[in-house]
Amino acid sequence: MENTLNQMLRKRSPGSGTLLIGGAIGVGMTAEAAVRGGADFLLALNAGRYRVMGAASLAALLPLSNANQFTDQFARREILDRVAVPVLFGASCFDPSTSPEMLVQQTCDVGYQGIANFPSSIHFDGRFRRLLEEADLGFAREARMLALARQAGLLTFGYAKTRTEIALLLDAGVAMICLNFGWNAGGVQAVAQSFTIAEAADRARRIFASIRSRAPDTLCFVEGGPIINPDDMFRVCNEASADGYVGGSTLDRVPLEISVTERTSAFKAFGLLKQANTAQSRELNRAARIAGIVGQSEFVLAVLEQVTRLAGTRIPALICGEPGLGRGALARALHPLSERSGPLVTLRAINPQAAPEAFLFGEAPRRQGVLAKPDATVVIENAEALPISVQRRLADWLEQGMLGVDGLARDTAGAAHGARLVLVCQTEPGRDTALIPALMQCLRAGRIEIPPLRERPEDVPALARHRLAMLGGGQQISADGYRLLLAHAWPGNIPELRAVIDRAALHSESEIIESIALSAAIGTGPSGDPANDDHAQHPRTERDWLLEALRRNRFRRGDTAAYLGVSRKTLYNKMRRMGLLE
Amino acid sequence: MAPPSARRTINWSCLRGLCSAWRKVTTAILKDYWVKMGNRSDTAPVNPLSEIAISAILPCPGSSHESCPPQIFAPWLAELPVAQRDLLALLPVLDVNGAICTALNGGQAARPGVTAALLCVDPFLRVRDMAALLKAAGIGGVTNFPTVQVIDGVAALGFDSADLGAHREARMLARFAEEGLAVTGFATTAQNGQRLLDHGATALVVHPGPPSVDWRNRAIAARHAADTLQTLRPLCNVPLRLFCPDAYGAELDPARALADGLVRYA
């Protein structure tokens, strides 16, 4: 083991500029990936195994198995002899039936290159820790095991939290000392922290200085606690002059959680796109095409079915929803769908010049109103702006039509030849329309509610793809980009989505629109006026977008990552790839 | 000068007096030492409820309730050295729940009144499967023994934060109760006891913690157990027992007097 240790000592020599990285892992796949990524050594720990099984690292301290047997089993099968770096065995000294001598002997016999004290008594304190020490199952026993391991020629790696524990490790002549800051923060199963990054750096600096004053050749590592990404590691290692870092959750659990979530979300988005081709019937497709409705959510299918059914009747319709959902287009689509021979007439009630009453009912005795036109469809947009008197008259007109006393010509079945009324109303979240109850009562059967985009995110990919097809550039959105689009709330509904797609398509140089371009386009906001875009305001390449985002957030990476909607690690990787870290 | 016979009489009387006094003093010293060494005094209180034994072996199914006291079944105890079992039961040296499954899958059957000792914070414990296994073996109750509540300090905060602490124990017991099993809760504090009651425990056992070799630490733990019993008494109307690990002696007497019954290793 002298050679291995010397190699590591050379790596840490001044000017080498390299930090030693240890991977605390529990499964073969992670081990191989960590080594491919440049890990200098691996620690086979039961905590690593429990993490990939879905439990927190803390489970390593519970009576779920005999830790030594458990660790040895997976390490032999999946890690030993499969990687080209030293593998250290995480040995538990809690079992009184296995003496430190036996543990060291077994570790040598199996062929591990080193040994570490894990799971360790350092993770206990208070009364329970005192009882462990009383029973000689505590840290003194771990230090004894490491001293024996050193004598046996094994690479020794000692976990410690306090100065007393470090003193015992130095007495034992341990080659590598790891200052542990507790269980890792970050990820879904984050544990509450005792230290901030600044406190951890300060503590490591003071402790490592005292270690080096006593044993200059000892390699000093940091691990756990608030260190959850390379930035944190760099800060602590830099301030404390540490020789390296040992990653556990930060190498497997946290990246795995993020990666699996993102990939699944991306696959889900593509799955939804595929559903669009199969879920809608031909009739619904026709209705969707005429009405300009895009999407495959249950809401959209329900709306299309309702429209198709309404089209075959003379029932007056009321279409409600927030702005930007295509209510007007849908209302107008009812006319061709119902194959009425009369004209399509639209009244914008919000128009101050409109005289709705005269327009609808005419001015006796000379002019007939549009409602009297045979087989016409009368669409009233912003119907909530109609005067109350007109609303009352409309309600009366509809009621008379139902009773057959409206004076209009009728066919042999008794159906009137007059106009069909379609009202379009704007609603606000949590509030009903501003129409009078009598009118609402008449329109109840034909009411269609269009849900906002935030309530049916599964329609977003289809809408985005539809918009790109209309732009005609042959561009596509990346899987990560769809994930981003699905995560946005779209308060401006479809117009906002269209604007974002337009901006992202315009500024994306490749055929694939990446998430960072979409993120920047979303960040510009729906109020952004594309007409005013120029190069100074909106950078053109992904690198420019990144720089712009960094500038906006004063180069704070955490804030920039949050602003762009990506993880700190993704941001870091992109910055490195684009040469923004130098 | 007194005659020789009179001199002899006076000497015998003094000697008898001195012997009596010496016997009283040495008895008192030895008794005090005996108690301080952790042994039970001869004036220990008598509890109204029968004692529950924690045992690694199930009594034969045919045995009557009278011949066998109520029992907590903990087969994993057989794997641990007696002197350190209270400590080791919470350390990664064995699989507590695995031992129960192995024992019951091996065909062991219980008589009614047996409670299974489970590690309720086991993140891989599936309540439905375990409940089915226990019911099939004739076991009608579960308890959180060993309990993670004996881990204290910052470590306890970490366990709670990772959802491997006392809250998870209570939640898991509640799910066992929903499966129709009687729940006995081990509690180290009144707060933990109250939480277990809120989650459906029908009996409580106050745990004084693993015993220390130092009798002063044991005395502190015993006093805390007595305080816990006193606090819990007006809050609950379920049986309130006291767990008496082997190494505890007369320090636990005040707590024993407050408990309805005791729980001991068989």
Automatic annotation (TrEMBL), chain A:
Which SUPFAM superfamilies does the record associate with it?
Homeodomain-like, P-loop containing nucleoside triphosphate hydrolases, Phosphoenolpyruvate/pyruvate domain
Q: Tell whether RNA-binding is among the UniProt keywords.
A: no
- Record's keyword annotation contains Transcription: yes
Q: Which Gene3D superfamilies match?
A: 1.10.8.60, Aldolase class I (3.20.20.70), Homeodomain-like (1.10.10.60), P-loop containing nucleotide triphosphate hydrolases (3.40.50.300)
Q: Could you state a single Gene Ontology molecular function term?
A: hydrolase activity
Task: Give every Sigma-54 factor interaction domain span.
Answer: 293-506
* Alphabetized UniProt keyword annotations: ATP-binding, Hydrolase, Nucleotide-binding, Transcription, Transcription regulation, Two-component regulatory system
Pfam families xrefs: AAA_lid_14, HTH_8, PEP_hydrolase, Sigma54_activat
Q: Which PANTHER family match?
A: UPF0261 DOMAIN PROTEIN (AFU_ORTHOLOGUE AFUA_1G10120) (PTHR31862:SF1)
Q: What protein name is recorded for this chain?
A: Phosphoenolpyruvate hydrolase family protein
Supply the source organism's classification: Bacteria, Pseudomonadati, Pseudomonadota, Alphaproteobacteria, Rhodobacterales
